[in-house]
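User: structure tokens for this one?
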Amino acid sequence: MAGTGFVDAETWYASLPGVVAAAGALITDPAGRVLLVKPNYRDLWSLPGGICEFGEQPQDGCRREVEEELGLGIPPGRCLVVDWTQPHGTDVRPVMHFIFDGGSLSDGGDIVLQAEELDAFRFTAPHELETHLPSSGLRRVTGALRALSSGMTIFLPHEVSASRASRVSTSSGQ
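Assistant:
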């Protein structure tokens, strides 16, 4: 089939861009505080969750990650937030982030932290989130809280970097 423009399915799929999927759970307590975990491999906190395995649906990845990290068998509820992280540097792929409703816990007494990855957990009041989360995590968590109260799924707008914005406006003739 050389020269016909057709390629086999395996070659075609291998040529497509790769995107990583990550899934986390917004778990609150009855006071509306958000459960955060402190990974031992970064400075700031995050929601429980992580990278989905190859071919794993985001809600299944969320369930698996919450069980691995917290020892809790919480089935994820509805999707609250979908977000996109632009690739940075070399050999880094974009990431689609999914935040699911993880329900409410009365306290953390049943939590068993995954010692290999996590140092601590805490319930954090919404007004204190910015002191614990990176800016991208804060956007997702505050979006998830808005989605939880509104009953909607929120697709966070992508923040275009200045260099990309200039390339887009230049290439579109504007």
